[in-house]
Amino acid sequence: FKLLASVMVVGIVLNILSSGQGYCIIAPLACGLCLSLNEMKTRVGAGIAAAAMLGGCTAHAYTYQASAWGVIMKMGANYIGPTDITPLSIILHCWPMFFVSLFIVWIISKWYKPESGLGEIVYFQEQLALMGKMTRKEKANIFVMALVLVYIFTVGVHKLDVNLGFAILPWLLFLPGIDGADVNTFKKMNVTMLFFIASCMSIGAVASSMGMADAIKEFCTAVLQGNTSPSAIMGIVFCIVFVLNFLMTPLAIFSLTIEPMCSLAVSSGLSPIPFAYAVNACSEAILLPYEYVPYLVIYAFGMITSTDFIKINVMRSAVFFGGFLLILVPYWRLIGLF
Description:
By secondary structure, the chain is mainly α. 70% of the residues lie in helices and 0% in strands. The protein has 18 helices and no strands. α1 (2-18) packs antiparallel against α2 and α3 runs antiparallel to α6. It starts with a helix and ends with a helix. The relative contact order is 0.15.
């Protein structure tokens, strides 16, 4: 349990530092740990992979993921102001889900308990020693990353667009005296991600233009039959996003559902902010690797079998949704979001 909890917490910290890209780092770290223990596709490997998913992926429900919230805030602009939801507010409003994730880790530690002891784990100490001393370029990148984090976590104070921090501050790395990047850095940029996000938004926009957004709102209205209970609406949100996950990428789902869900919330006399949180959080309820890229990335490292992946994610999604309704929704009531 201590090992799995540590992997999850590291994934969460990496998500905060990288604005949602922690899965790209925790996946190879977890895989290296499995290789050093000779536990690929074993009970231990499945547990480590699950912890990596909880920290590097599921944590997007209560930490800021730039690509997801960029789409959500854009599509919900008619209902949500540019500083109504910030990286800091996401943590402050959704942090109880951390303890739900920790409970899931505890279940996995019992469910996939190794048949024999793990022995002495020195993998991370050995890898840290091999890295050597921190270079000047690495220090420069840490400095600029810290500036970006300070900027995005103080959006509520300076009231500037959060995306300006990502668009402007990284260019400081090219200044003489800092020299944290050079022309070769451009060759390593993940430009394809820009086209991927644009295509996902296009999928949602096309679906909306075909009337799917209106159909979703009409379906919710018909099911609710005048019921304005936040828990009831949240249950419908979960079911809709869960089903759409099989058909569309989460970014496309955000593009399609945010506007009708916010509209439904406002027409019910409720704030649209928790519903934006809900759509984002419910997108983490996946069963198969292809449904969400971060989970696919971790699965692709081969630490876990497909059978164990599905079994763990069935349990994870069920417990996560239960915690969402029983813990997070009452917490939102307590702090006045409803």
